[in-house]
Write a structure and sequence with these properties.
mainly alpha
């Protein structure tokens, strides 16, 4: 399905939104540039469903990130999203959105489901992280079941898991509510997108607990995800695969979310019938 929309408008809208987010300190300067590229690609390729889903993800993630933390646990990466974080969370969705403009109508329902699954995975992980960090219950490792400090990658809690499902559902509902707009209506991708998002978030936790690099600040005696700790002291890798950081994990999780959602959609009779038309 080839898009007849003017590509300048989506990027202009994305730029305006990115500037507003930068001024609100939700994005860094390079994050705003990356957000303009990702947002413009998504809106240009996926149209109204893309814009709706992206708004649901970014608005909810920003709002949750600004809630007070009653337990006093610090933010590991800060509230501002940089370019790498933006690309890690939205890059897969942007690629799939662009693919919608060059593929036939047969592929459109599956690409839309994959697009939604990628964003739903990012939302599910963000909601789980933000809500879980503010819950009273101590998280446990998804692999061993042992208690871990708040904010530890791979740590899960009941509150975090419920928040993860809610985050995935929020994007799924946004995509489904707008999926029938435009010249090529498609079956509702809500179940596929929601399940894809949940699976992506679970994959994020498993990778975070197994292969993600964990760094250590000798000056403060704290583990961190940053190359340089907030005290300014450089950190060293103490476990995990060097270079396999949180951003790589997030990228992998969105790939899992996209693939899972597309596979579920492909196995749904209504989507299969739409793909054959």
């Amino acid at each position: 399905m080839r898009s007849e929309r003017n590509p300048v408008v989506p990027f202009a809208v994305a730029a305006a939104a990115s500037i507003a987010a930068y001024r609100a300190r939700a994005l860094s300067a390079d994050g705003a540039l990356a957000s303009t590229a990702v947002g413009g690609a998504i809106v240009s390729g996926a149209g109204f469903p893309g814009a709706t889903a992206l708004t649901a993800f970014f608005a909810s993630s920003t709002a949750l990130g600004r809630l007070p933390r009653a337990n006093g646990s610090p933010q590991r990466r800060g509230n501002e999203r940089d370019a790498v974080q933006v690309l890690a969370n939205g890059g897969v969705a942007a690629v799939l959105a662009v693919a919608m403009t060059s593929q036939s109508s047969r592929a459109h329902p599956l690409l839309l489901a994959g697009f939604g699954g990628a964003l739903a995975a990012a939302a599910a992980d963000t909601w789980a992280t933000e809500i879980g960090a503010r819950a009273s219950a101590r998280p446990r490792s998804i692999l061993t079941g042992r208690p871990v400090p708040v904010g530890t990658s791979g740590g899960v809690s009941l509150a975090g898991l419920l928040a993860s499902a809610a985050g995935a559902a929020s994007v799924a509902m946004a995509v489904a509510a707008s999926a029938r707009h435009g010249k090529t209506p498609v079956p509702s991708p809500l179940p596929a997108v929601a399940l894809g998002g949940i699976c992506g978030a679970l994959a994020d936790s498993i990778l975070g607990a197994s292969v993600q690099e964990v760094r250590y600040c000798e000056s403060c005696g704290e583990e961190t995800e940053s190359l340089r700790h907030r005290c300014g002291h450089p950190t060293t890798v103490v476990r995990g695969i060097p270079g396999f950081d949180n951003d790589v994990v997030n990228l992998a999780a969105t790939l899992v979310g996209a693939t899972t959602a597309a596979m579920i959609a492909r196995s749904t009779p209504t989507h299969a019938a739409a793909a054959e038309r």
